[in-house]
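User: tokens in, sequence out, please.
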């Protein structure tokens, strides 16, 4: 990970969670997305620890050295949030919970489901969104139209995307990371998947690595996913409709904790409508930033800007007795 970070283990029932921890003080839990690891937060450990916080970042279930349950339903949002809650219990709280990509909905859901454990919450790339009136896959299929298939819909078939990713792990990871980064030119960005086409053909690896991803960095991801495969991470996507069903009781719920949101202007995951409505669902939104030219891999592409935002937000909590 980084010098100064130590590996620790947590348990949530039968699931073991490998994580890295650095610093002392109020805890900050960092949750990664797909296809990533705790390593995606490597640039945040030292700055946050030096700012006076205890930083904890796990390989979430299905990834890296953490448990990889076999059943698809073992990756629903309730179980993912319960992993976060188990870590918070172990490190002492309440804590600040921050997520990127898939880690974002886990962070927001943890704040709603375990409000006493979450002091404040925030996300990179993916904002908290209102629960839809119909199952998500239905809306995705309608949006894709008859000629294309939404990538999350494509991921629903067990084994299909796994085989494509695992046929050449290095090329697959690099191509996917590149295609939705802020550096990829228009002609090399992720393309819609035509009906009958393959996910893996919607991007290609660049001729050279971007400045924010070294060969060593890429090697960490490649080694991990060669060992684990992609099944665990892809199973998160296979729960989108189940997640919608499980969270009916939270329809209309408001995140009351202090919160922030950071996104990139070139992030294809940007949801302008959800971002516009964010203050309605998160009335204590204290910081909202758009990083110009940044793509999807926010904390890796723009670590210094992200770190400055995180420290600004975290320090703003220190004099707020309502968040202690």
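Assistant: Sequence out:
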């Amino acid at each position: 990970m980084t010098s100064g970070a130590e590996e620790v283990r947590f348990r949530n029932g039968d699931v073991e969670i490998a994580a890295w921890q650095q610093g002392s003080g109020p805890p900050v839990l960092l949750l990664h997305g797909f296809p990533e690891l705790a390593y995606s937060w490597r640039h945040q450990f030292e700055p946050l620890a030096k700012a006076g916080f205890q930083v904890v970042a796990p390989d979430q279930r299905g990834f890296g050295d953490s448990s990889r349950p076999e059943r698809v339903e073992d990756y629903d949002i309730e179980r993912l949030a319960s992993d976060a809650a188990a870590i918070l219990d172990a490190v002492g709280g309440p804590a600040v919970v921050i997520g990127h990509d898939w880690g974002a909905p886990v962070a927001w859901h943890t704040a709603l489901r375990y409000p006493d454990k979450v002091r404040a919450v925030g996300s990179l790339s993916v904002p908290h969104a209102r629960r839809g009136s119909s199952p998500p896959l239905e809306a995705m299929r309608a949006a894709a139209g008859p000629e294309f298939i939404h990538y999350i819909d494509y991921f629903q078939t067990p084994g299909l995307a796994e085989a494509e990713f695992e046929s050449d792990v290095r090329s697959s990871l690099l191509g996917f990371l590149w295609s939705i980064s802020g550096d990829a030119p228009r002609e090399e960005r992720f393309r819609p998947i035509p009906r009958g086409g393959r996910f893996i053909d919607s991007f290609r690896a660049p001729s050279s690595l971007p400045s924010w991803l070294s060969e060593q960095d890429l090697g960490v991801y490649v080694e991990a996913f060669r060992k684990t495969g992609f099944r665990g991470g892809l199973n998160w996507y296979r729960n989108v409709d189940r997640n919608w069903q499980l969270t009916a009781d939270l329809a209309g719920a408001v995140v009351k904790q202090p919160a922030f949101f950071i996104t990139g202007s070139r992030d294809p995951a940007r949801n302008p409508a959800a971002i516009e409505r964010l203050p309605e669902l998160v009335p204590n939104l204290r910081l909202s930033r758009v990083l110009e030219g940044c793509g999807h891999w926010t904390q890796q592409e723009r670590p210094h800007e992200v770190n400055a935002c995180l420290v600004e937000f975290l320090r703003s909590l220190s004099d707020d007795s309502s968040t202690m």
